[in-house]
Amino acid sequence: MKITRIETFLVPPRWLFCRVETDEGHVGWGEPVVEGRAHSVRAAVGEIAELLVGADPLRIEDHWQVMTKGGFYRGGPVLASAVAGLDQALWDIAGKARGVPVHELLGGPVRDHVRAYAWIGGDEPGEIEEEARRQVEAGFTAVKMNASGRMSPIAGPGEIDEVVDRVAAVREVLGPGRDVAVDFHGRVSYPNARRLLPLLEPLTPLFVEEPVVPESMPQVRSLVEASNIPIALGERLYSRWDFLPAFQAGVAVAQPDLSHAGGISEVRRIAAQAEVFGALLAPHCPLGPISLASSLQVAFATPNFLIQEQSIGIHYNDGNELLDYLVDPSVFAFSDGRLSRPTEPGLGIVVDEAAVREADKQGHTWRSPIWRYPDRSFAEW
Ligand SMILES: [Mg+2]
Question: Which of 26, 69, 158, 178 minimizes the number of CB atoms within 10 Å of its CB?
Fold first, then answer.
């Protein structure tokens, strides 16, 4: 079998898909994208694809090594995401060629279903309790919220209380039998994070995510030690080499993104690395259907998997939904906040190619918001 053609599709709301075609009729799909930098990743996929056309798609590990290291310069969001999407597509082909779902190739299932959480926002304080209630009614057993909107670099008591009150309100709705995860989104400064973590401790969050921006890795150990709340991070880390200092600092939950951190091949390895440090895997996935399908394949084959993010109804998906590009959306049907094991070959989904080709004509120009403080200086989003 040989790879004959690689195409990319820029589809709303903010995604990029790749399609890898072979001379034996098997087609693999991947989702190589960085939110807000889809065009850059598209260009990177085009360059890296030169290494694959004409090659045997089943030599996945060799391709991963060459795609990742063969350009001399390596790593970072754009290059690692380009590799990630192509890697997903190669695994999709490998599963389809052998007639099994990818998790069967990763050692077989280790669980019967995958727990997922629902996103409930948090930038707008008034709506958050209502949204939590809605997700409980939909059957979810865990939700994730932003801790705050824009926050002063050293917050006063009003801002600090607002964060704690908002999480407390959600905890009240959830009761003791469900979980709330709190995302600091790198927008909470180091001193604010130090102050907030002990105050949130009595509310028993599932974890606090990105307590600081990823480049502040030297501060992570002291944040791990600031409370007993498990610290999660990793959506802006791209390889096992990036993750090592996080695990050494005591991070409890690793959140690599299947579309950013080198794909199924590398996330699988990051999970194994996490296991050495007693950490758990909770893949980041505010993205599209191919990214979620890839996440699930890893989740079903990974013993130290904790919980899956997913973006159905997320605020970014303006106008288009996660299920729009699937022939049969029932593969992502939740029951009690859980997803069942995909049984179809490859990634377990059938991409609606006609819908994707049509959507690519429209494309998108989604960009991350730029936030500013009242004095107009830059604020982390
Ligand atoms: Mg996050």
Answer: 158
Distance 7 CA to ligand 1 centre (A): 29
Residue 85 lies in a domain: yes
192 plus 281 within the same structural domain:
yes
Helix ranges, 202-352 (H): 217-224, 240-248, 263-276, 289-301
Ligand 1 centroid to residue 57 C-alpha, Å: 33
- Determine contact, residues 142/173, Cβ cutoff 8 Å: no
pLDDT above 70 coverage of the chain, percent: 97
CA distance 271 to 281: 6
Contacts within 8 Å (CB) and 24+ apart, 58-63: 58/1, 58/90, 58/93, 58/94, 58/97, 60/87, 60/90, 60/91, 60/94, 60/265, 61/265, 63/87, 63/90
Per-residue pLDDT, averaged over 319-348, amounts to 91
Tell me, yes or no, whether 371 lies in a domain.
Answer: no
The catalytic site residues sit at 185, 284
Distance 348 CA to ligand 1 centre (A): 26
Domain containing 280 equals 105-348
246-267 average pLDDT score: 98
CA of 282 to the centre of ligand 1 (A): 11
The answer to whether the beta carbons of residues 254 and 280 sit under 8 Å apart is: yes
**What mean pLDDT value characterizes the chain?**
95
Q: Kindly give the pairing relationship between strand 371-372 and strand 118-119.
A: unpaired
C-alpha 99 to ligand 1 mean position (Å): 35
Helix pair 263-276, 60-69: axis angle to 10 deg:
90
According to DSSP, residue 344 is labeled: S
49 CA distance to ligand 1 centroid (A)?
30
Cis amide leading into 286 (omega within 30):
no
Predicted confidence band at 316 (pLDDT cuts at 50, 70, 90)? low
CA-to-CA dists, residue 367 to 204, 271, 305, 376, angstroms:
34, 30, 31, 19
Domain-embedded: residue 200: yes
Rounded CA separation 265/297 (Å): 11
- pTM over 0.90, yes/no: yes
